[in-house]
Every structure is written in structure tokens, then in C-alpha cells.
Design brief:
By secondary structure, the chain is an alpha+beta fold. About 20% of the residues lie in helices and about 40% in strands. It is built from 2 helices and 6 strands, in the order E-H-E-E-E-E-E-H. Strands 1, 2, 3, 4, 5 and 6 form a 6-stranded antiparallel beta sheet that branches.
Amino acid sequence: MTTPTLLATEVFPMRWGDMDALGHLNNTLYFRFCEEARVRWLDQRGWGVRLDAGDGPILAATSCQFKVPLVYPCNIRLEIYLKKLGNSSFTLGHRIMRDDAPEQIAAEAEAVIVWCDYAAGTAKPLPDALRQQLEGAVA
């Protein structure tokens, strides 16, 4: 198995209030951290959501496989890599772990991003410049 090319790494502090009744990171927060990292990654490259642009990314699907609980206190490390590149979409993989123990994956998530014509509500081909940025980074 080849190691995927990392597109981005973000570190987030886990807050006391992020825990659930069982004393570990609430499952909804995994999705929130993935979203925040994904939005930052898109924005930093000029591909963020801007309704006035007419088209852009939308989240079409997301999933998460929980492996090891994260418990307070810790900093959460989230790595983003490209899993699949399609005509009008791409799939991002997310690895989530403690920043001080990156060898132990706490969860693996993915997000399917579709390039969308916002007015029509339909998919359209990825912009050539975005495709060029993503090519070669497929896991």
C-alpha cells in the first residue's frame, strides 16, 4: 500500500465541552473538525465557497470509521489526502489522531466534493486549474 500524498495537516485543540457522556470526543465533532480542515484547505487554494462566483464545491457525501477514542486533554491532528479524482468530483480522505501520537489513527473519514453550478444545482466538470493542482496526489 502506498502512502498517500498529504494535501494539508491541521491541528485543533480538544475542548472540555467536546466530550460526550462517555468521556471521549463526541462523534459529531469528528465531522466538524474534518469540515473545518477541508474548508480551510479549499479557501487557502482559492477554491472556497463563494456564491457570487456562480460555481464551486459542495459536500455530496461524508463518512467516518471510528477506531480509537480521543480523550481530553489533547490536540487533534487531522491530515487530508486525495483518494479519488473524477470528472466533476474528488474524494478527500481524512486521518484523525492525537497530535502527540500520530502513529495511532483514531478515525478515518472521507468526503466527496462535487463541483456545482450553484444556480442550476447541477454538477459540472472540475475547473482545469483545480484538476491540475490535484493530479498526481491520488492515493
